[in-house]
Amino acid sequence: QVQLVESGGGLVQPGGSLRLVCTASGNITRVHVMGWFRQAPGKQREWVASIGITSGGSGGVADSVKGRFTIARDNAENTVALHMTNLKPDDTAVYFCNANIQPAGATHQDNYWGPGTQVTVSS
After folding, report:
1. What is the pLDDT of residue 10?
2. Mean pLDDT of all residues in the chain?
3. How far is residue 53's CA from residue 88's CA, in Å, rounded to a whole number?
4. Cα–Cα distance between 84 and 87 in angstroms, integer?
5. Is the separation of the CB atoms in 62 and 46 below 8 Å?
6. Interval 53-97: pLDDT, tens
7. What totals of helices (H) and strands (E) does the chain contain, helices first?
């Protein structure tokens, strides 16, 4: 069983900061890429940021959050953090962890989603 567990969401005032963390666990051979999408009510899910786990690199973020959000590998194995600063009301959404993972016993990668964590930016 492969699972993505998210934490760090909550209510924050405009201009505030939050740190979202996602950890992959279960019967995993290798985690290749981890990242974040978000979906606001009535809108389509959009890509926010992603970073390679096994290949390294600095990752990338969407233009809509560039300069405010950064993505990084955390100290724990198969863990990624989304550092969000100068949050705006338009950032309000459910944030979903997403990962490309080779499960144990497989020769391919599958795409997995976390259950989502709510981020609300409001005064």
Report:
1. 98
2. 94
3. 29
4. 7
5. yes
6. 877 677 999 999 999 999 998 767 789 999 999 999 999 999 999
7. 0, 11
